Amino acid sequence: MAEANGSSSEPVFLIFGRSGWIGGLVGDYLKEKGAKFEYATARLEDRSAILADIERVKPTHVLNCAGLTGRPNVDWCETHKVETIRSNVIGCLNLADLCNSKGIHMMYYGTGCIFHYDDDFPMNSGKGFKEADKPNFTGSYYSYTKAMVESLLKEYPNVLTLRVRMPIVADLVYPRNFITKIIKYDKVVDIPNSMTVLPELIPLSIQMAERKLTGIMNFTNPGCISHNEILELYKQYIDPEFAWSNFSLEEQAKVIVAPRSNNLLDTQRIQSEFPDILPIKESLIKYVFEPNAAKKEE
């Protein structure tokens, strides 16, 4: 059981997804903060094991960071549909349902890759998809399952779903970091997107759980940034010799199995909760590029 110190009203977090990227980062942050937390041992498809974890840890908050994105990328899900359903739909609903029956708040780190620009939401229009908008992108099986589970989760009164997009950290060699991916590609598309700078937003997510917010939250920094703008920053702060080339969505389609989502998410809700949240470019400079530039000079 989580260590008993401090007042009985102190939050106790139970994290699912220990082996995942976001699950690890959330645990690191809670440890640094001195919060009481434990990682779950149950697999999400095993209801009785989830229940045993809940009874052992007695959490006030459950954080679901688990889910299948596929390796090396979401194309994996196209040929592993049953495994994707089991993890991303059945498992997630199991946990939400058990938490609801026990009166425990659950926060789910989901995805915002369930929308794409269209005639109603044109690229570069500044018009973003709101929390209440219905997903319009099911081009990949991964996104299809995530949109499905989001629509089911919103019926649970104890759940907050976070729409994470193209997550970024300061570690520029970590393979799942969006920046690490695009600096290694032979060619990149150049499309403005909403993105999630995790070093800034993970602490905000814990506050959201503590406030017991529910429903859906577009979990991105305000505004959008294009691939080329990020690579320009990389060149400016990290590697002046860096060069890249672009290709079109049509050309990209020839080298990937499933289409990719590109969108701008509206951030009015997260900004109303956290007025100091930085716009995407400022956040990238503060949390990613400046720290890396400083390390380079050491």
Summarize the helices and strands and which ones pair or pack.
Layout: E1 12-16, H1 21-33, E2 36-39, H2 47-57, E3 61-64, H3 75-78, H4 81-102, E4 105-111, H5 141-153, E5 159-164, H6 178-184, E6 187-188, H7 198-210, E7 215-218, H8 227-237, E8 245-246, H9 249-253, H10 268-273, H11 280-297
Parallel strand pairs: 1-2, 1-3, 3-4, 4-5, 5-7, 6-8
Provide an overview of this structure:
This protein is of the alpha/beta class and 298 residues long. 41% of the residues lie in helices and 11% in strands. The protein contains eleven helices and eight strands. The chain has helices at 21-33, 47-57, 75-78, 81-102, 141-153, 178-184, 198-210, 227-237, 249-253, 268-273, 280-297, and strands spanning 12-16, 36-39, 61-64, 105-111, 159-164, 187-188, 215-218, 245-246. Mean pLDDT is 90; it is low at 1-7.
